[in-house]
Inverse folding.
């Protein structure tokens, strides 16, 4: 039996969603603030921007800050507005998501914002040693199931990748609604004897003691979490005292 017109079989919303994704992928290809390396480039150190992000992409010497798993890029864009003298790169494999952030940055003339489409496990193949000043991990999937721990963005393997590309005094930030992720990361850091500069299980519950860059920016989903009473946790740490 021939399939005929696929639009008669698939739900209309699914068809529209696919068309929107394809449109966004095409637009990303035209955006000057989006970089989409191949996996082969990352694995072979073949990306020409590696070691040259300041010079060739941002055209300045300002500090580079990454947001890993940036989603729609809300945090990346708002951090860039808050700190115009720093460069921000949102990193995510889902280009149709960060399309919104990339488009907003271009529309608002934010030249200190970029987006990098890649798997996070390849991050150390796309940046040189000591090239990055700060890394943000915002609301990652906690990967609670044991078989998924290798994908947890603060496991020891990932921490080693971050340490490689961060400057010696580089800073890590973890902001999450997951008490499990918060506790797991604290335990791991303490076990590895890594310096923890700040940690709290309810960052909105400590008033003026909360860092402004943490409570001054809220993503769409974060606002939803807060509306239902979920606590937002935060850890700031590094790899050297």
């Amino acid at each position: 039996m021939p399939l005929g017109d696929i639009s008669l079989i698939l739900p209309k919303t699914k068809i529209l969603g696919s068309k929107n994704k394809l449109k966004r992928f095409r637009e990303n290809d035209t955006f000057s603030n989006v970089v989409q390396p191949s996996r082969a480039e990352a694995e072979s150190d073949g990306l020409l921007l590696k070691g040259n992000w300041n010079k060739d992409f941002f055209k300045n010497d300002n500090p580079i800050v990454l947001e890993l798993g940036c989603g729609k890029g809300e945090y990346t864009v708002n951090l860039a507005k808050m700190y115009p003298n720093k460069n921000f790169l949102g990193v995510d494999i889902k280009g149709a998501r960060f399309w919104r952030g990339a488009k907003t940055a271009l529309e608002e003339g934010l030249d200190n914002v970029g987006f990098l489409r890649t798997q996070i496990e390849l991050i150390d193949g796309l940046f040189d040693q000591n090239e990055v000043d700060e890394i943000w991990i915002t609301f990652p999937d906690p990967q609670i199931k044991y078989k998924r721990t290798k994908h947890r963005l603060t496991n020891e393997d990932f921490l080693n990748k971050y340490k490689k590309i961060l400057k010696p005094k580089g800073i890590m930030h973890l902001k999450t609604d997951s008490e499990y992720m918060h506790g797991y990361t604290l335990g791991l850091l303490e076990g590895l004897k890594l310096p923890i500069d700040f940690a709290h299980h309810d960052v909105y519950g400590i008033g003026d003691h909360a860092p402004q860059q943490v409570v001054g920016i809220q993503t769409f989903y974060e606002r939803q979490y807060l509306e239902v009473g979920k606590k937002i946790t935060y850890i700031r740490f590094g790899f050297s005292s």
Remarks:
- The beta strands are 34-35, 64-68, 87-92, 113-117, 132-138, 166-176, 196-200, 233-237.
- The longest strand covers residues 166-176.
- Residues 48 and 105 are 23 Å apart (CA to CA).
